[in-house]
């Protein structure tokens, strides 16, 4: 294919030609940044486009078509259109001066032929949705996939111009907080008039008018006027084999001053559209560490992975899950000075997991294997409320209040059987554990931001007051029976009950003052004060029959106060093409803690200087270079400092270290981003270096019974170096696009294993490649591969070095035919291989669906889908850390067939109304991409 494409490109080079010209208004004024678009006269497919320069001149190169349609658009002027032919015996054509007429009321009527697919407005790229046709009932995610320069992966993550999109707005307003997928997966594509892609400045930069160089890639969805006059949305219901079901719907009512949305879902097919925060709540939050339930301690270190329930981002979930959720979002502009942003979300999850784990551990004293079979039944419910009020007091003063609150209820049961053997297969220990944890937690945080802008441009002062509370109340029951083998066999039985109440109170103030120094230079003075008050009361009781005995050694009651003072100064320079910010802060931290049960106190104070620097250079609107240097301090937490034993897993004991010092981190990062608006070629390069002094890691020691004790310690330093590249380019004659993304990470760190310091080096090399083919609305083909390999090298014994390879291949195809039918296939092949353990596992996954549009105006859709047709009901994970390599096999949802029906609601809640778009019918378009 590569040789074919090269040959095709070389063949086409001889026929390419260039179009030039210049633009002016009817009064002779120069028109800069006007959009010049070339379309195929046959089907209005976008071929190329350019932008006029400071003199009004434009140039579009590498035109292949013999005949093109030229369209010129500029805000406030009537559109210019002309069909032109490639000049004979010439490689260029100059159109001379093109004069645009100012728009009048007679010229304001909208026609399909007047659609310009893409418009550039300074730093904003605007796509006209009508020019990128989608199927009826498609969501915004389907629309984004058709936009040049925009990519949406399998998990629904969005990239625009090579950068990850962090936020999706609807008519400039937040939609259910800052989770982009809630908007792209729930809003109808046909409701969108324009898709705007912009680099959103920080809140502070928008207020002060001083560009601090911080950007956030953002998509703003502008709705059609028809969808601001009533309700719209859709409802889906499905039922299938093995009593599998799916219910999902959304309902929206948008107007100029109000956005009201409702979402709901319920299913038992492992689908749920929640963010990572919901999963943290599902796990019971950070309180699960000390709740007395089953705790899987992840040993830190360079390149360390994380354990637990995987985040659902569209990928295949492990275990069996039932999901129920609903929510409401209300954005209200009461007037130009008062604005409300609010949302409420509830979700309930039931997750059942069966898991087999095999781990090969490397120690200087000898290696051993660990095997575990476990089951988990986790149930959780979560309520989440967000409220933002923006009040503009007058032209110089404003007030912004932000509040969010959560209530979590958790019920977790786990049971496991494990064994440890030496390399000769001799049994060293065997354990069986059962645990139950139940309780609830809540948290509330509020901020009050007061801002004042002086009459002198750039001179501002702001104060941000913060207050938060986080509390939890959990109970736990633990039963453990452990057998130890060796010179003397021993059986240890633990029956314990525990209760734990946590309460954290934090409050603070952040002051910022900016002063213009002249010559586009600015001074910023900042001061931050924060205090965290933490109270923990954990009581552990040993059970003997019906009696309970208080266990002081495992119980813990402490009070801790962390206080931060951080004054700082920043100087910025914004001459135009670039901005430069340099800063220096001093952070003074003090800790006062009291271990009530042991009548001991912990006192520490740390003072650090924190320099920072940021450089942002814009070569153009579509080419940018950023360099960033930051320093930070990672103080040890009270749990890490207190010498209290946590025996939630009796074979893996955790104990704190009161001699810990704070870790100091240096972080360098460089990004280069380039996007060619004419050829749609994007290049994104990211490189970073993290260097941590006095790094805090978890040391390990193992006794003769193979019981592991984990303790946080300081080591000399840890280093992490890495980078990734994203390169995407289209092949327009083949309606195709390629994306390549190699990446590399290398880390070097130190750790203590049985009191011996060991240096560990971990290198990760991999990347992804994707090919997409789209032919009008009829055929969509996607092929992708994601490969990663990890090599871990140990200083104490190079023969124990680890190497494993993870591979993921995917093929998806969609066919639309006869105006009403659609067929799709998705094949995913996962392969896991380890040279260290000879582990080799493959999982092929196949999904299929066929659908038909029904009812008047295609208001309904019937779909028959087959999921996991090859019935692969396991999930596999493979990871390596500082001294082990581990493979995990988890149960998964097997094959099932689902028949579903989707019903689309129109903007007036009258699905049988056939009056244009308000009747919900498909709009017939002549322009498509």
Automatic annotation (TrEMBL):
Keyword Membrane annotated: yes
Pfam families: OMP_b-brl_3
Key words of the record: Cell outer membrane, Membrane, Receptor
Entry superkingdom: Bacteria
Main location: membrane
Gene Ontology, cellular component aspect: cell outer membrane
Residue span, Outer membrane protein beta-barrel domain: 452-903
Keyword S-adenosyl-L-methionine in annotation: no
Places the protein is found: Cell outer membrane
Coiled coil: none
Name by which UniProt lists this protein: TonB-dependent receptor
Annotated organism of origin: Indibacter alkaliphilus (strain CCUG 57479 / KCTC 22604 / LW1)
